[in-house]
Write a structure and sequence with these properties.
single chain, alpha+beta, 39% helix, 13% strand, globular
Amino acid sequence: MASAVRAKSASAAVGSADDESSGSGSNGSVAEQGVSSCQAEAESLAALRSLIRKRREKYVFARWNDPLLLITEKLEQIELWQSSAIPEEQVANTTGIANVRREHSQEDPVYALRELVRNIKPDDHSLLLIVKHIEQISDILASDGQEQASLSCLQVVIKTIRKEWPRDENIHLLIKQLQSLQAQPPTEKICFGERLRDERCPLSLQTKRHKERIQAMMYERQTWRIRERMKTASVALVLCLNIGVDPPDVVKIQPCSRLECWIDPSSVSPPKAMELIGSNLQMQYERWQPRARYKKCHDPTVEDVKKLCTSLRRNAKGERILFHYNGHGVPKPTANGEIWVFNKTFTQYIPLSIFELITWMSAPSIYVYDCSNAGIIINSFQPYAEQHEHELEKALAAALQRGGVQQLVCGSGGAANVAANQVQLPNQMVSYKNCIHLAACAANEILPMNAQLPADLFTSCLTTPINIALKWYAMQEKLGMVPRIQSELIDKIPGKVNDRRTMMGELNWIFTAITDTIAWNTLPRELFQRLFRQDLLVASLFRNFLLAERILRSHDCTPVSLPALPPCYRHPMWKAWDLVVDLALQQLPEILDHNAPYRQLPFFEHQLTAFQVWLDSESESRTPPEQLPIVLQVLLSQVHRLRALELLARFLDLGPWAVNLALGVGIFPYVLKLLQSSTRELRPVLVFIWAKILAVDPSCQVDLVKEYKYFLSVLQDTSVSKEHRTLSAFVLSSIVHNFLLGQTSALQGPLLSICLEQLNDGSWLLRQWLAICLGMLWQNFEKARWSGARDLAHEKLYVLLRDAIPEVRAAAVFALGTFISSVTDRSEEQANNIDRIIAITMLETVGEDMSPLVRMELAAALQWMVLLFESQFVAVYLAEHMRGHATAASFVMCGDPRDLTSSTHSLERHVTIRRGASSSSISNMGGVSTSSGAGSSGNTLGRSKSGSGSSVGRGASGAAGGNNSIPFQSIFTKLWLGICNLAQDPFPRVAAIAQEIVDHVKDTALCPIMAAKEATMATASEKCSSLSVSLPPSPNTRVNYLGSGGGPGGAGAAGESPPVGATASAASHWAQKLRLSGSGGGVAAGDPASILQRKLRTSSINDETDSGPAYSRGAGLGLPSGPRESTHSARSSGSESNQYLEPGHSLTPIVLTEFIPWAISYFTRPGKERYSSAEGVTEEGRQRYPVDRNSAELRRRRLRFLRNDFVRRHARRQYQEQSDRFGYDVCVWNRKTQFTPSIVKLLPYEPQIAVAYREKVLFYDFQYNSVRTYGAEALGGANATSSSSGYGSGSGSSSSLNGSTPRKSGVAPGGGGGGLSAAPFARVSSIEFINAQDMALNLVAHEDGVVRVWQSSPPASSGTSEDSPSKAGLVTAWTALGQVNQHGHRQRSGASGGSIGKGADSSGLSMGGSGTGSIVTSWQQCSQHLVIGGGGCRFIRIWDVERELKLADIPLGRSETCARVLAPYLPNMRSDVILAGCDDGSVQLFDKRCSPQDARISVYRRHSAPILHASLRANDTMLVSGCTEGRISVADLRASQFPSSVSDVVHEWDAGGDVTAIASHQIAGTVACGNASKIAIYSLDGRVQKVLRTNEGFIGPKIGHPTWLSFHAYKVQLAVGFVDNMVAIYSPTPVL
């Protein structure tokens, strides 16, 4: 029965689906139509048969691969599988079988059917319906139970299909073939060339590190913290009412206002009324300041007031006192600034001078005058205060001269004693800047007497603002939106002021927000901070004063204040207050009469909406939002808190100015308090807000140190987005940055382990900040370092040294650098061993990193090794220094010190290197950590250019102590080589930083020697002067290593000793420098010899620290033998004690980098200037900006893309329509150059041509008629506009192992040279255009393996004939290929055992090694890969320019083969192949997707001479190659499986044996060959189409010798460089 039901239900489903296609009327199920199940089944099967029959006819006619074949096959497999899976005797266990089947879903035919159906994308309607039916069947089969029913249903369907589509062998074979094709994974075809649209082609070198200087973000820092918070500690309430007696100068109207503090004095007896009024006034003030000390004085005398004020000041000390004066019962104040009090018998009014009152009150204080004509008091006080301030300044100046400022300071703070005999002292010393005055009305005004209002209206506004505001609103007829509200009802408003859930509380809350907003939008920021944020009571009084101004002005009365406030009574926010009052009063009758619940007012919700509208208006010129103080108040509401925080976060994301505004308005205590909330929804937004705050103001770390666990929990919670975990890591980094309490607290928490666990996270920004956080955690905090060492933190950071993102690699180097510097006590050999390993690992991993950012951090990290092991580096320097003129390859340790150098000074004869006796293991290669203690030198960043270059080679074995021998190669030698290599870096800033370290070591090494030498010369000078004898200089006084520029200052610019008779001041230069360096606390300044001797006795790079036999330190080395100093202490010698190496003290760095401030500025920036935070595997590894569809830059880019498309279409039309496709015989542009052009290339889209000769590259712009030069001299102005190009020193200059020889500078050893002049580059070898589809960057490769990328800004106007060098900026530079060693592998100069300073002349003629060919490059924009080879290398190297990583070194196969030509790529052309033409005549094809060993696809050997040109045609597999013998070959890469056969060659011809340049057009079928007599233009079949002859001679046509040929990427243009210093462009159309 079940089977029938299931079969019929399935059939009915089929019928309903099929009937939709056939248009029949039965569109519902069988039950709904009222038809029998048998009839429905028959109809559905008939419809299915009809569909299958039609498909069968189509298949037989066209023999196409109908997907129904595979579907049927799967259905039959399901039938077979289901039949075997359900034996008849086990029908009861069907549920268990279904469960087992689900566990093996990968082998389930139903699963396979579903996958098959899901992958079918039918185009015809019939198959769509069949597939829908099959999906229904598969759903039935996949359900639990009723397997027999589904099997029956399946059999019916298969039977129906087979009846209309019978099986035959051909179909069966076809099905098997289709199944086999489906089973095999699709093999990805190799792409020889595919052009992408400009929009899809990525842009390179567009990240922050390339487009801006690596430095902290510059913005205005505003002080938002209250420098001195004040508290009103005492309140004097002086009431001069004299109830029952009106003052003589005031005529009161009838009826007149009577209420004082909401009490009618006539309702009770005068004494009782006075007491009640005083008590009420005190209660009203206590709402705002409940902890103040209150004293009342009713109808006082002068003595009462004096006694009251002096006692309050004595108790308050330096805190503020409030003086409230109610003068409703006395006459108005006088023009002299006198207020009135009484005599003891109340028979007279006694004047009290305001100046006496101020003297008694002292400062700081606040005065409230509630009386008529009160403004005259302020008018009298103001000039007095100004005069007093002037006198005070004079007194302070005089006291400063006398040294008696301490007596004045105590008075200026307001804390002077005010005893009876000292009353006059504060009068002269106290500053009245902190005196605040509030007056009820201006001068010559009287108080309002409206009977509906209280008599003390000003006091009521200041102390009970809500009551008086509601009453005043109810009185206004023009505002009377609420009728029938009596004044008595307002007195019955329920709730308390401090309970925001009640009407009174919410009204007070809204009133606070509105008055704060009015003040913040009206007052200057400094005044707002002083009045509304410094003192709670003062802030409350001034908020209420704004209300008093509004109410009193409506009664022709003008309240006055000092400091004066701008008028605020017409501010638009008062309209919002009126609406709030109206909505509240609407509820009041119902609440009072029917006890209805109070409904919250929508004020805050509306204001948040207004704030959101302001945020959505993306205008750059918009004014700050008015609602910011209201957002502050909304944070107190749990209902709107999350929305308010989100909007606040959006506001803070606008930039530092927004953060300053938020901090200025007082956001800090609110968000700090919210960190105590446990609500998970608030965590992400709070973390974001605090990240923005700390990025602008790092000093907040002090406030956050107690709340670090909040951010630690966010960082640990993997359910939080990676963006917010990154923000948490940044916040934690800020908390521990140079803050010992923060470091200690974070270390107690699991910050270290949490960071280490997530170091391999997919988000690059999170990895970066985890590494920075670790580095800041153990920076100058040894306890954290050892905790990290136990967890192998340094080894886990090694992984990040190979990260794909340069910022992450730089962060890892920073963390490892601070790891090294955190231990200053070097008595533990374990710390020394760890640090040596770390330093060597960093040097070997990122020493040749492509990113200057990483190399810069590496130099800064290695400086800690120099500072900690200073004497070892000094020993390496001195050893190389002494041996520098003996040999340039290696040197051998000599037993006799006389073999080291010849010198007239005894100290120089003892400069040698002591040999260690231990093995060469890393634990014993380090030497002791003695240090000279020299501080950072004061040298400039210029690098000296004289001296000879040499390097430390492998020393010969010798005896140390008589029985042990080790090679003279140590950790410190390698590190010194690495530092010297960085000093030769092509990026100026990196070289400048490393050169400072080299100079520091050089100064430390030479300072004692030079000081001793100068002291000796001074002594000799004195002796010679006394004898009056002039002696000639000794021939042995020339000290070569102190040659020209070798040291700063020094004796003799030519490397000689100073002449006899030198002054004593000149001789004391080095001695003074020695004293300044900090060497020798207890050594006399005139004894540099002992300093050097002690330095040498403890200086060794192979020092024995923990093993080996004891031996005499000076044995066999010419050093005096003595007791062995302790090698386990960094302070082993008294003369070398370094104050920075004391435990608990941090080292003073030699150089500082801006990487960390620059990284912090990432969070300071507006959101649109940060990278997109999209998550996912593909997005997390990319550095992309969020797309601003309305940006001007994007519109300009689209315009350039349209220009590119026009260039391509126009060139295509040129190929198709032009009658003469080879019309290159017209010279449309030519220019004479200074030297012979070596490279000439046309830009693909810009009307420009690049010309290279020697070390320069010139760009000629046809449109602006200008020329731009890229070379060493361009760096002088490039640093102003370049991304991070350092200090304008030439990037080519560098130093040898001892820091004295420039690289490729062409300066002879010993020659002169200045410090800051830019050294010439090596000869230009290749030019590429990066981002040619947009704003092109110019990549220039030099013969020394250095690659530089330049950017240029467009000319300011077309009238300029030549752009200034400042237009050029260096984006990046790195050594893409080092020098060639004997195995054909290139490495950086100085890293090998050869000469460091050895190089070419100023033109960079040739490289070392085999010297076979120049550097060749090929740039592919789509993959952002730079392929580079040549220069004697036996491989080609692939660089990922975007990630700044070396991807692979692909070997060329044969040891003697070197790449000579790399096939170029068209702009926007995607390709998987690399085509390299070699110097052995072979053309090799590589697939760069494969591993380096398997990358070579095929080798074409059609030439016997070195390849001169090789290129692939665009969108084709045709290979065009040519060799130096003039043989041109055109081959089809697909022609044969055996590339060496003849069948792959399509055309081949001989262009002559003297060919010097070959080029081919990748789109047009054109090949150009140039020799000494002509330039021939060939078609691809080898026929000569044109012969170019230029430069008409006197007798006949004359052709120059072409040095370079280059076609335009798209246009019919040929650029030619001639040996006679001429550049020309040939084209049938003009260049513009």
